[in-house]
Design brief:
Distance between the termini: 48 Å
Number of domains: 1
Order of helices and strands: EHEHEEEEEHEEHEEEEEEHH
Shape: globular
Helix content: 25-40%
CATH superfamily: Carbon-nitrogen hydrolase
CATH architecture: 4-Layer Sandwich
Strand content: 25-35%
Number of helices: 6
C-alpha cells in the first residue's frame, strides 16, 4: 500500500482501573474522539486494558490474558472499520495454556488484522517482574503495511535496544511505536526522576535519528500499586525533534501530523543506511566479545 505524504497520529496516555471492560470502553471513547479530530493512526499504551500486572508474581493475574484474535481485538476491529482508522492494540496475549506474551496487534482501517508483534526483550526489575508472565517474542522485528503508512511496533523494554529499532526500520517501517508502561518506583522520583525520563526519551529520539523515521511512545500515567507511571508520551520526527509531548500527571491524547516525505529527506542527507558496514557486524550476534 502506498503511504500518504502526511498523516495524523494520536497517542493515548491513560490511567487504568482494575476492570478491563472499563479500560476498554474508555479507550474506545478516546479513539472515537481522536478519529473525530482527524487522527488516522491511533496507538494505545502497553497492556492497555488492564492495570500493569507485573508488580508481583501472582498466578491469578494470568486470567487477565486473552487470545488474539479475541474479544478485545474483535471490539476494536469494529471501531477501526467504523472510523476508517489504524489502531495499534497492545495486549496481554494468551497463546495457549501456560504460554503468554506481551503483544501488540495492528488493526488496519478496514478492520482487518494487519499484523501481530510479540515483545522480544522481557525485563526483570523491581516491580517489573515480566519474566514470570511473558514468554519472549518469536516473530522477530516487523513492520506492517496499512492504509496510511507502514507501521512497526516494539514494546517498552525493547526501546533500549538499537538493534530492535534498526531491524524494524529495515522492514520498511515509517512509523515506529513503542507502547509503554514505565514509571518511578518508591523513592526514585525526587532524586532520579528527571534523568530517568530524559534517558528514556533520548534513547527513542536517537532511534528516530539513526533510522530516519517517526517514533511515538504512548505511556500510561498515574499511580498503580507502588509505581507512579510517568506519562510524558511523545512523538519525534526523523531528525529527533519532539513534535508533541504530554505531561507527567494527566491523561492526554497527543495529536501529531507526520510528513512522511521527511523520511526520504533525512535518509538522503544523513545516509546512515548507505554507510553501514554490514560486513563488520557479525559480532553483534555474540553475547560479548572476549578479549
Amino acid at each position: 500500500m502506498a503511504s500518504q505524504p502526511k498523516i495524523r497520529t494520536a497517542l493515548c496516555q491513560m490511567t487504568c482501573v482494575p476492570e478491563p471492560d472499563i479500560n476498554l470502553q474508555r479507550s474506545i471513547d478516546r479513539i472515537r474522539e481522536a478519529a473525530a479530530a482527524g487522527a488516522q493512526v491511533v496507538c494505545l499504551q502497553e497492556v492497555f486494558n488492564t492495570q500493569y500486572p507485573c508488580q508481583a508474581e501472582e498466578h491469578d493475574r494470568f486470567a487477565l490474558a486473552e487470545p488474539i484474535p479475541g474479544p478485545t481485538t474483535t471490539a476494536l476491529q469494529k471501531i477501526a472499520k467504523e472510523h476508517q482508522i489504524v489502531i495499534v492494540v497492545p495486549l496481554f496475549e494468551r497463546r495457549t495454556h501456560g504460554l503468554y506474551h506481551n503483544s501488540a496487534v495492528v488493526l488496519d482501517a478496514d478492520g482487518s488484522i494487519a499484523g501481530l508483534y510479540r515483545k522480544m526483550h522481557i525485563p526483570d526489575d523491581p516491580l517489573y517482574l515480566e519474566k514470570f508472565y511473558f514468554t519472549p517474542g518469536d516473530l522477530g522485528f516487523l513492520a506492517f503495511p496499512t492504509r496510511y503508512a507502514r507501521i512497526g511496533v516494539c514494546i517498552c523494554w525493547d526501546q533500549w535496544y538499537p538493534e530492535a529499532a534498526r531491524l524494524t526500520a529495515m522492514q520498511g517501517a515509517e512509523l515506529l511505536f513503542y507502547p509503554t508502561a514505565i514509571g518511578w518506583i518508591p523513592g526514585e522520583r525526587d532524586v532520579y526522576g528527571a534523568s530517568q525520563y530524559s534517558a528514556w526519551q533520548t534513547m527513542m529520539r536517537s532511534h528516530a535519528i539513526a533510522n530516519g523515521l517517526f517514533v511515538g511512545a504512548p505511556n500510561r500515567v498515574g499511580p498503580e500499586g507502588q509505581i507512579q507511571f510517568w506519562g510524558g508520551s511523545f512523538m519525534a520526527d526523523p531528525y529527533g525533534n519532539v513534535l508533541a509531548q504530554a505531561d507527567h500527571e494527566a491523561e492526554a491524547t497527543l495529536h501529531t501530523e507526520c510528513d512522511l516525505s521527511l523520511i526520504n529527506t533525512a535518509r538522503t542527507h544523513w545516509p546512515f543506511f548507505r554507510d553501514r558496514r554490514v560486513d563488520a557486524f557479525a559480532d553483534l550476534q555474540k553475547r560479548w566479545c572476549e578479549r
